[in-house]
Amino acid sequence: MSTFKACEDHSVTFNGWASTGTAELKQWGYHPRPLGPKDVEIEISHCGICGSDIHTMTGGWGAIKEEVIVGHEIVGKVVAAGAESHHKVGDLVGAGAMVDACGECKDCKAGFDQLCLNRAFTYNDLFKDGRGGKTYGGYADRVRVNGEYVFTIPKNISLAEAAPLLCAGVTTYSPLIQYGAGPGKSVGVIGIGGLGHMAIQWAAALKCDEVVAISTSDSKREESKKLGATKFVNSKNEEEMKAAAQSMDIIICTSFAKDADWAALLSLVANNGKMVLLALPETPLSIGAGAFIQRQVSMVGSLIGGKKIVREMLDFASEHNVRPWIETMPMSDCNAAIKHVQEGRPRYRVVMETGAESKF
User: Which residues belong to the signal peptide in this entry (predicted)?
Assistant: First the structure.
């Protein structure tokens, strides 16, 4: 039984696929909170599957006590808009991993609204704007969110391709921009998957001198070149690791093995360089301080991106023809799609389709 009845619009029910702590999703309906003046209601056509969804639904990041509808790579059509929303009915839009922030704090004003203490993530979170309510994600037919965190999809990007840009895209684009990727820089990307294949494309489009794909096997060596990598390093190959030592100004870490040798991976970072951690492990990292101090290397975290950089990212993707490599599956087969992702088989992002696009 939901504890948020006072914040529910009982005139409508949204239907989705929910988890209660396992990767097995079941059909479930909920009442969204009433449409606010800045809100929009989106009829969902596509939703990408992110690793965060699986960490959440399986309880890897903490036990969940109530039904959770995950999914934060949401694309569809606006079917209702509040009076103060800058969107209109019929707009083709997307929503990413956060759906609200205060807009007034220091972080919001600096463009880091993803760090706002009053932010609301797209699912398994609470709205903190005084109206109450719980957030539910995009494995569903519809969603209602603050229109400030809803983005117009460029006309030359398909709705299916747009979905992963709203999380995997901005998550990898944002730190590259923040830490100065571009001409004169060498960028490495650890993990060639849903995030990593985007990071390679961004770095290539930003005209970095070198774009190095780093993986635990050779299986993606040729695909990495097609994505824009100028070099490939197998992290299990001692000779390749030695040859690449201290050569990369920025390394984007999108995934890692449970037995990852962090000292070895940090040895790839150039003096005064940065390793940017995007992957969020379920257990603590273990690494000696000397790996950082002796060469003034730093490891920093990066969390998605604020609304300003999401808009910038979409424009950049449109202009430079950066697109995710996707596989599409029906949302009605979401459990099969989740299994496909868990087995590590996609090249490189799975996007689920509701069938709504045929009506647009």
Answer: none
